[in-house]
Amino acid sequence: MIVVMRPDATQAQVDHVTNLVREMGLKDHPIVGTDLTVVAVIGDERKVDGDVLERAPGVNKVMRVLAPYKMAARTDHTETTRVTIGEGDGCVFGGTQVPVIAGPCSVEGEQEILAAAEAVKAAGAHALRGGAFKPRTNPYAFQGHGEDGLKMLAAARDATGLPIVTEVLTPSDVELVSKYADCLQIGTRNSQNFKLLEACGKQSKPVLMKRGMSMTLDEYLQAAEYILAAGNGNVILCERGIRTFEDHTRNTLSLSVVPELHERTHLPIVIDPSHGTGKAHLVPAMSKAAMACGCDGLAIEMHIDPEHALTDGAQSITPAVLSDLMEDLARVAVAVDRTCVPG
Amino acid sequence: MIVVMRPDATQAQVDHVTNLVREMGLKDHPIVGTDLTVVAVIGDERKVDGDVLERAPGVNKVMRVLAPYKMAARTDHTETTRVTIGEGDGCVFGGTQVPVIAGPCSVEGEQEILAAAEAVKAAGAHALRGGAFKPRTNPYAFQGHGEDGLKMLAAARDATGLPIVTEVLTPSDVELVSKYADCLQIGTRNSQNFKLLEACGKQSKPVLMKRGMSMTLDEYLQAAEYILAAGNGNVILCERGIRTFEDHTRNTLSLSVVPELHERTHLPIVIDPSHGTGKAHLVPAMSKAAMACGCDGLAIEMHIDPEHALTDGAQSITPAVLSDLMEDLARVAVAVDRTCVPG
Amino acid sequence: MIVVMRPDATQAQVDHVTNLVREMGLKDHPIVGTDLTVVAVIGDERKVDGDVLERAPGVNKVMRVLAPYKMAARTDHTETTRVTIGEGDGCVFGGTQVPVIAGPCSVEGEQEILAAAEAVKAAGAHALRGGAFKPRTNPYAFQGHGEDGLKMLAAARDATGLPIVTEVLTPSDVELVSKYADCLQIGTRNSQNFKLLEACGKQSKPVLMKRGMSMTLDEYLQAAEYILAAGNGNVILCERGIRTFEDHTRNTLSLSVVPELHERTHLPIVIDPSHGTGKAHLVPAMSKAAMACGCDGLAIEMHIDPEHALTDGAQSITPAVLSDLMEDLARVAVAVDRTCVPG
Amino acid sequence: MIVVMRPDATQAQVDHVTNLVREMGLKDHPIVGTDLTVVAVIGDERKVDGDVLERAPGVNKVMRVLAPYKMAARTDHTETTRVTIGEGDGCVFGGTQVPVIAGPCSVEGEQEILAAAEAVKAAGAHALRGGAFKPRTNPYAFQGHGEDGLKMLAAARDATGLPIVTEVLTPSDVELVSKYADCLQIGTRNSQNFKLLEACGKQSKPVLMKRGMSMTLDEYLQAAEYILAAGNGNVILCERGIRTFEDHTRNTLSLSVVPELHERTHLPIVIDPSHGTGKAHLVPAMSKAAMACGCDGLAIEMHIDPEHALTDGAQSITPAVLSDLMEDLARVAVAVDRTCVPG
């Protein structure tokens, strides 16, 4: 931590800061510059609320030096973690192979999810997604089939062999969802629902954890740390677009997080181009871009009849588009020394 | 809902859209313009996922016409709702009087919260805030005293007569928190935790509901609608700053929401200048600005010794600053035909 | 400047950084912490491109310590600069009195601008605004009357005694505009048109300089420094809203810049609630908020017949609304120890 | 244009709106819905300031239906425009081949730019970039060598055969710069400097026009329309990152604009991953992503000795990295049915 004093700070103000630093159990190291003094603070700044020094008289600003997360950091863990979804090794995130999770936004019915699973399988994708518990912005919108939806997903898995990824909304549902799902998904609106993060950390199924739509990477990795610190190391990160001023997409898909997260963390990173754009016609191009910049997986919304989807039809591609896309992704994967072959 | 066709859309594509509209149970009304055709859709667009029409061939975009919330709308409810916190009428939001909620970010101990409550009372503010359950970005940071903290708050209420406002983080804590608190607070990170919104809607204590840091007003009022629709009409809205590119504050305090929310909803609106700036030195000016543009209340972080606060010290003002601020607020209130006098 | 090394940086990498620092003519001061090493850099970091150190091997990040502007800083100039527009002292920005600039977006004709000037005068405002050269997003929209518009403005000044503020778009027009105007306005889209800033700095009329819609305060004050460094100290800052994700206004009016700019700079700060919201119905409330948080002036769009305005009618208030607003502003001004009385 | 009335609007208010519409020379078409009335407006809404209707009594909002640009639209111009830089056809944007523009941020000296040009050529890139006139946020920073810099660029072109791209800052320099350059660049800070756009439209050299850092695509294409409407059809669009809350990059590179611009406009689109991230280590991955999603060219900052660059060293890659990247780009290009071979 570096405390930058104001140019007009007095010695007494600098002394007051060094005293506060010592009270925190840290070491101070003041440096007198040509224009102003800074106080370098030595020790683990993560354990204290150092921002409080900002309000001490004569202080201009406080700058953090250390990454605020530990277990998620690549520092002591240089290999990318491999997270396997389901039994067997058909769907491993973090290796050379880049799996694709596909399926509808929500589980609409037994026949619908089965047909979707078969289309996902036929296209060559590796896992099935579908929501049984749906977080809806509008309280009057379809909220999902709950446990019945989980059972339908399980039946679709039995029929196709595809592992299933589905969202959990609240701590009290974690046990139920983890009974059926091969991977629990935490949505963007729950990205700082710390009680839910902890609950997912206390069970053993892998967790696909979406980035909050206005989260910095430091905040994102601290949220992942909640799951890791609770005991579950099988965390897959997922970028799904951020909120900006742009209006040609529903969200802005920030692909630079892929190479940057690979620098900062050992956790694999998946891209969701469906929520990341909100527009079906942009999904193929952005999927290929994600592959080219090094993502470890993709999560794509596909619906067997998007115009009649109950949710997210606008961003869902058809089985035919998915099928073509899987072929294109296989080609791009090879061009960047990865593979994307049927599971 | 208005479906805008592309300039090159065919008649068959327009017909396909009108068929989809009819399948939704709505009426279509196509209008042929000089450059393109639009299909006006008549009926309650809130019950359907109209965005799906965006992916029909020949469609350029879909524009919503109706507000997506009903119970929160001012339309059928022209008076501002008055929400009373605590017993008696010392602290009513939505009337001429503008109450101020003040207190520390977190309940740090029995003595600390009692001293804070006495300072709040002495300054002339109207309610006490303090967190017993703390949502923390960093998993290693202080997470609050839990039920013990609630008991300390209740003791401070008994000693001062100030009603208490405190945060609830997860549905399973709602019953516990509502046993002690006079008003439940839902934080910005839980603003779309729909299970928590519903749980707060099913109990009877008033709810102070913060806007999510990247929520539009339409999304915000839909979230409020979750509480209203669950049966609790005592909702107080609270703007606490949004996430933007600005770096001179922790958040950007968007005060224009005050007059705009007064247009759209009958719910009272409180401003939190502490989180809204993240800097103690900006709190007095922004509190006065909030009063001048018509807010129905203020929520201000005050700590008896901010430099030693466990949380949010950087944005907490001292009792002396609060005391001066209350005098200043009283003057501004009068200038805009409101009052802000001790409860 | 503080160079933060990576936790795994080698001594050779630290040495390489210190060598680069010395080549820049600065002094290095490495500090070995518990987790990593930082290199404090002593000397004037403003003269070098220190960011380049970010790409040296083993470096994590570079953090600036000094404000990047000098002449605009309050440090050596503790009094707020008073900038007078026009002859006499009826319109001084930076003192106790808070002047209001009002008028139409564009000068539409001789009669229109005269009528507007008279309405501005009658309402008790202090200066007349109106655009003769209009920057228009759409190339087919009305672009202003040019020099004829300037002459109409001058005639309105002669008739009412109100000083006039008008925009200049390009360096080659600066001489012409400064011949007629009492104050030159630089618009948000030209806030980093450095050639225009310099040209305005080389003439002597005061400059009202709008903040860019996505500028940080550091960038803004550096832009102001271009004018100051070119020789013109009469700079008035003007916040007109920033671009964010919000959709209930055209821009987000960030009022916290008022107290923060007062900390950082000696230049007076004016608020433009018309562009800052884009909605006429929000202008009165936001004007009062601006007054309450300490602005040194207001710039408000008023049109004698907004429904027929050629430009910006949606955000222009009527003469009657301005008249009421001036009375309200006078009351709020007194409540914060300022005045806002007719010039 | 669609005018949405408030649910409580009276018939007189609807009539007032239809009258205003007729005064604008447009046709009105009111539609009475179940909850409210909308007035569809038929005719060319681009010629009027329809937003003014927002302030008519009883109006809730106004929604535009038509794209605000014409010449830039793909509607009447379905083939992507091919823009050739320099003589011969070695560097054509908009075809199957995807050219790469590379070089330093600024022309630092005769030897430096020559060495850079040779490195660019050796790596297999297609054009040389370098700034002679530099827009600098800080007034005290290096501003470029001006005409001398242009001469150095021309000498580097003579030595290598590479066409040159360089920035122009102000209308009065357009003639000078176009005398030397093969392509004029308009920077992000000048993206709405309409006088400069017009001046570039009145000369015949191709224009590489960067998107403003907070511009929507509609605003961007209107700015391009200024150049097209002034007579110059050789416009290349260039995305260079937008301003958002993200802090791990200097800007957020929004790659979804590539497929979306291909839908909306016939102009070719180039990606600048250097400014788009501000970090050299992210440039290779983002270049490949840009290629994969269909860009028509790349603009990359390369410096022969980035640690000693006068400007933008943090985001400049070395010749060795460029050389490897060109090989990688060639592979990705093939995977998406494009080519990227030496010019």
From TrEMBL, chains A, B, C, D:
Q: Does the keyword Zinc apply?
A: no
Could you tell me one molecular function GO term of this UniProt entry?
3-deoxy-7-phosphoheptulonate synthase activity
Q: Which InterPro entries match?
A: Aldolase_TIM, Class-I_DAHP_synthase, DAHP1/KDSA, DAHP_snth_FXD, DAHP_syn_2
User: Into which EC class is this enzyme placed?
Assistant: transferase
Q: Which UniProt keywords apply?
A: Transferase
Q: Where is the DAHP synthetase I/KDSA domain?
A: 94-327
Name the EC number(s).
Answer: 2.5.1.54
Keyword Ribonucleoprotein in annotation: no
- Residue ranges annotated for the DAHP synthase ferredoxin-like domain, each copy included: 1-66
Q: Which GO terms describe its biological process?
A: aromatic amino acid family biosynthetic process
The record's NCBIfam families line, in alphabetical order, gives: DAHP_synth_Bsub, PRK08673.1, PRK12595.1
This one is known as 3-deoxy-7-phosphoheptulonate synthase
The species is Algisphaera agarilytica
